[in-house]
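Same chain as my last thread, 298 residues:
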Amino acid sequence: MKINRPSSESIGAEVVDIDVVAVTEAQVDTIKQLVYDHKLVVFRNQNINEDQYLEFARKIGTPQIYPQDNYHHPDYPEIFVSSNVPKDGKKFGVRGTGRYWHTDCAFLDEPLPFTMLYPQVLPNSIRETYYIDMQQVYKKLPANLKSFVDGKYMVHEAKWRYKVQEWDIDKAIIDIMNEFEKKFPPVKHPAIITHPVTDEKILYMNQGFTTGIVGLDYETNQKILQELFSFIERDEHIHTHVWKDGDILLWENRTLNHKASAVPEGETSVSYRIGIYDGLPFYVSSVGVNKQPEILTK
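reply #2:
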């Protein structure tokens, strides 16, 4: 395989001349190290089916079965489907996922280390996913904002991103929210985590799921969070991946915030996502907690 590495402080390595179906153990080790070093790896010119995609993910680590069944591929529960195209006349996955800054499963006690994404149908116009390197953001964070995150915990909640489903008809919004919060209660993670491989410090927060800094009152939280998000989401911090047919992306959820582009009305989009546990702690906490992986099963 041929590897094109990014320039210093940029993210995104490119792997070409590789058949992911036939990767060796040594190549898998190289791929994982590329993810740790460069946060994002794109494999070009792939043409594989669901079985082969899942097998590739299993070589990288342990695939997650996402805890909400309605996102599952009907034949492959490990494949999370984002789609606005029916399959065999039936709703297929969930449309319009991830169009806000987030890291996958930050709202779980054990978030996802890796995400792999393989589009099946790309829109005609906008074909982009956006990323922010939170390791670099932390290094650039102004001292006044660092004082609000160093040594602190943050609260992450899923309920504000719940997508209303057919079975929610005739339910009050508050009841829907309360039911969902029982399944996914708020969790706390250190604001600054240490990567288990690179030992780098990472600001672990995102606008999609992070709702508060532990120890601050509501008004102060709202003010400081908005200041933090405004800094994090500056244009100069954003890396844009423009999708090509046959791309598979594998990225590091410990380090990267990401956001999907909108799909214009009338255009089609289908993507297959697999979350992957790499067998390591998600983080080493800067406040003394070592998070061990707990593999989710159906």
